[in-house]
Automatic annotation (TrEMBL):
UniProt GO molecular function: oxidoreductase activity
Keyword NAD: yes
Pfam families named among the record's database cross-references: adh_short
Gene3D superfamilies per UniProt: NAD(P)-binding Rossmann-like Domain (3.40.50.720)
Positions in coiled-coil regions: none
Family: Belongs to the short-chain dehydrogenases/reductases (SDR) family.
The name this protein goes by in its record: SDR family oxidoreductase
Organism encoding this protein: Chryseobacterium taklimakanense
Keyword annotations from UniProtKB, A to Z: Aromatic hydrocarbons catabolism, NAD, Oxidoreductase
Amino acid sequence: MENKVIYITGGTKGIGFGIAEILLKNGYFVAISGRRDEDVKRAESQLSEISPNVLGVVSNVKNYNDEENAVKQIIDKFGKLDGVIANAGLGIFKPVDELSAEEWNDMIDTNLTGVFYTLKASVDELKKSEGYYITISSLAGANFFEKGSGYNATKFGVVGFTQAAMIDLRKYNIKVCTIMPGSVATNFNGNVPSEKDAWKIQPEDMGNLVLDILRMNPRVLPSKIEFRATRPDIK
């Protein structure tokens, strides 16, 4: 670990928060971002109970200048950046004929363009550290479904983007991979996690997977990982 610094977008709740918890418990320095100042402050306060080595920054991944500023704050605080988890995402599920142009663009700008902006803002630091860039896609990036046209488009795009970026950046010893989880017990799409979600992937499961990836020998790269619940039929 050696005090490695990891930046997690969309880290104020759900998958991003779960990853932050696991990394902090295992000695990593962690920066999280979110769009709203109050959410960032709340999450930073909660995570600081695990470790003081946490930084919350306000950033909307749809805004490239925000992501540039987030990386600058991380460097100012910790002096380096060893890994980035591009996790921020949005899902709107409607039949394609009912999906508005605004909803389409909101998903594209957050889920796909945001992933590019986060990489663009951090890639120079990752070249220095020969670090990791991990995107959180979805099984929806390989399997289309009803009412998922916009979401499918973004997540298929994230998988393609990440795999191409992996080829571009491997010569710098940057490790690029995408994780494609199935159903996760989070607040995504208005869900309120409860016992009914016990069969799903939990945020800490995502955190432990990221931890395993970061601990791998740098000569190997799990470039694309499908991650699903063992028994989705048990509910």
